[in-house]
Amino acid sequence: MAPASSTRPGSRPRTWPAAAALTLGFTAVLWVLEAWDQWTPAVLDDDGIRPRSSEGLLGVLFAPLLHGGWGHLEANTPLVLLLMFLTLLGNIGRGLAVTAVIWLVAGIGTWLVAPSDTVHIGASGLVFGWLVFLVLRGWFAQSLGQVLLGALLFLAYGGILWGVLPGQPGISWQGHLFGAVGGLVAARRFASRDETREAAPTPYRRRA
């Protein structure tokens, strides 16, 4: 007879190593691409979103990976590291789905409404989307812990959300706005009471 086995009540697989690895890997890609853009004849920034042009539609896929210089990338990196990690933490698959929704909504929205003579690049659309998702998901999930985390993030970084408004030259407020919209859509779609139930204790399981 095989020995009995059990799982601890309330135990869940640890996701933080995978979340950290994916976050660091994504950030490394951003820095490698910027180095390639800076140190080779390639002009990767031209591959961003070009509104309402067929070739510029491919920029929806590439724009979050590209930055307009080291300063642009350095400004985005701390929030990419923090907010992507928190989005993936707890459920990697759900976090990736959230990121995909934000990526597409931010890109397609920018492609549809931004001026046609512009090119839009940068991960800030993802940053705005992740922040809105993390701030709102606790309300949709009715999870006190997530509400408190969202409140802390809003107090710390909520000021950047003014970036969804037109104003500063050279800044893609359209990318910010539709990134935030993507975060709202993702919070409504993926943050649910299921997350609370997943954290509930589970009984011992034994097998002969």
UniProtKB/TrEMBL annotation:
GO molecular function, a single term: serine-type endopeptidase activity
Gene3D superfamilies: Rhomboid-like
GO cellular component: membrane
Name of the protein: Unannotated protein
Pfam families listed in its UniProt record: Rhomboid
Keyword Signal: no
Record field: transmembrane: 96-114, 120-140, 147-165, 171-187
Membrane topology: Multi-pass membrane protein
Signal peptide, first to last residue: none
Main location: membrane
InterPro entries: Peptidase_S54_rhomboid_dom (IPR022764), Rhomboid-like_sf (IPR035952)
Organism: freshwater metagenome
Cellular location(s): Membrane
Key word Chloroplast present: no
Domain Peptidase S54 rhomboid span(s) in chain numbering: 58-188
Keyword terms of this UniProt record: Membrane, Transmembrane, Transmembrane helix
